[in-house]
Amino acid sequence: MIRPGSAVKRKQQQAKTSAPQPKSKEIKMPEAKDYLKDRDYIGAITLLDCERKYSKKHDLKTLLSLAYACFHNGDYKKAIDTYDELMRGHDYDKNFHLYKACCLYAECKYKEAKKECEKAGDNVDGGLFIRLMFHLSHKLGEETQIMNYHQQLTSSIRDELCIAALHYLRNHYEEATEIYKKLLLENRDFHALNAYVALCYYKLDYYDVSLEILAVYLGINQNSIIGVNLKACNHYQLYNGKAAEAELKVLQNSSTSGDVFQDSDLLRHNLVVFRGGENALQVLPPLVDIIPEARLNLVIYHLKNEEVNEAFKLVKDMEPVVPKEYIIKAVVHSVIGQGDESKEHLGIAQKLFQLVGGSATECDTIPGRQCMASCFFLLKQFDDVLVYLKSIKSYFLNDDDFNWNFGIASASAGEYKAAEEALLQVQKYREDYTYLSWLSRCYIMNGKPQHAWEIYINMETSNESLSLLNLIANDCYKMGQFYYSVKAFDVLERLDPDPEFWDGKRGAAIGLFQLVVAGQETREKLIEVISMLRNTSNPQVEFFINVMKKWGEDNGFSF
């Protein structure tokens, strides 16, 4: 059941200046039924309000028409006020409670809507009562009542549409699609069914199919907000936010009632997404309990802005239902877990990722495989991480985040060549210390210690540069790249006369001397090492230097 308008923000809209054209040349006053037939609800509301104000019309027909027009225009409060006025009049009918309940449902006031339904009782429009209670039971989480009302539904078109809508709301998109397709075969002129089918295919990630089916509906209703918005969402998934926003221009160009974007919760929400989070804090919070995706997109906004605590508040009590909700909740827990070194949060994240990646419906999808990779990443099982990342690598050739994760996983699994290639493709993290340290390690492990040293040289002196120096000193030592190990330990020792740095420097110097003796390093580097040894005041220094000099003299090499 899709709300036809906005319940959060309504602007005073101007009436259309032109009335429906009469069939004959005779000029006559427009009637409300003409506007309603053309679905010009603003025109109908304007005319009916004028009749009430100037002609003192407060009869049953006028008020019912006004409430109907307000409901379909998304002005639920005014519709409710009108039904309240009807219930105070002498034309009281219990069905008014039912109609008011529909408005309350649209405002997401489900408990109040149920109370109004109960006031209506059984002696009302039975079909509408059952359909509304069916959906209210779903919104209120009353599973037993859902089954009870489901059994009372018939095979009528309205009841079938009601069942399909509930399937959609419960994320059973295949079941909803089957009903819509069946109804479409039997009712070719029910063009809106094409939009519903397209919406289901969008939810199933078949964006091209969704666009193809949606084109049928937009060919007839080219200015439909639901239709144009869905087309824009498909373009967002297939291309980018700019392409999506361009599709929405047709709505503004065709609007005669002000800013169509400000008058629609759905459009305002999606514009935030298309523009990469612009105005998120102004638009999304009021929509969190109205548009399901609003909560998730607000969480994403907070994560991108490193506002982890704000993101956690939004997911803490959220019971995930669809894969995207599981994934976003897992990401929040993993960020907190890694930042605070919390085993509890990391454990929750790992289980949530595994639930998605291991499910029958998601295991062979790209998000599903990303989830399994994330699960094994948190478990530090990097060989398994690579199994999943390699299976989807072709879809993320120029994606910085994918290459970043692939690079770290490859390095952690000892595949340094692949790690170096992946990290060099990353652009947006090049100033990040973690990136620089992993790339330096890859350089060293791939026999390119000079590149790691260049990274250090280009850094400003800081705690991070000292950490990188420590990494270079120790990793080069392990890999037998003693020249750069001596250089790194020499700088560290001069900054901090820690005996461990002297031990490392001494060992690396002896290692380099052995390589020179074996003819695997140049004698010029040995001269540099002797110079660096002299920077240390340890009494062992002269002994080492004398040994090196004697070898040089014996081999015709003068220092």
Q: What does this entry look like structurally?
A:
The protein has 559 residues and is mainly alpha-helical. Among the domains are: 90 residues; 80 residues, no CATH class. Helix content is 69%, strand content 0%. The termini are far apart.
User: Could you name the ranges where pLDDT drops below 50 across 5 or more consecutive residues?
Assistant: 11-19
The tally of strands reads 0
Which structural class should the secondary elements be placed in? mainly alpha
In this structure, how is the largest beta sheet organized? none
Termini separation: 88 Å
Gross morphology is elongated
Helix content: 55-70%
Strand content: under 5%
Count up the helices. Answer: 31
**Mean pLDDT reading:** 91
What would you report as the Rg, rounded to the nearest angstrom? 35 Å
State the main characteristics.
elongated; mainly alpha; 31 helices; 0% strand; 559 residues
Question: Care to give the gist of this entry?
Answer:
With 559 residues, the protein is an all-alpha fold. It is 69% helix and 0% strand.
List the helices and strands and how they pair.
Elements: H1 32-37, H2 41-54, H3 60-72, H4 76-88, H5 95-106, H6 110-120, H7 126-139, H8 143-152, H9 157-169, H10 173-186, H11 192-203, H12 207-218, H13 225-238, H14 241-254, H15 265-274, H16 280-283, H17 292-304, H18 308-315, H19 323-340, H20 343-357, H21 366-378, H22 382-392, H23 400-412, H24 416-425, H25 433-445, H26 449-457, H27 463-478, H28 482-495, H29 499-517, H30 523-533, H31 540-554
Helix pairs in contact: 2-3, 3-4, 4-5, 5-6, 5-7, 6-7, 7-8, 9-10, 10-11, 11-12, 11-13, 12-13, 13-14, 13-15, 17-18, 17-19, 18-19, 19-20, 20-21, 21-22, 22-23, 23-24, 23-25, 24-25, 25-26, 25-27, 26-27, 27-28, 28-29, 28-30, 29-30, 29-31
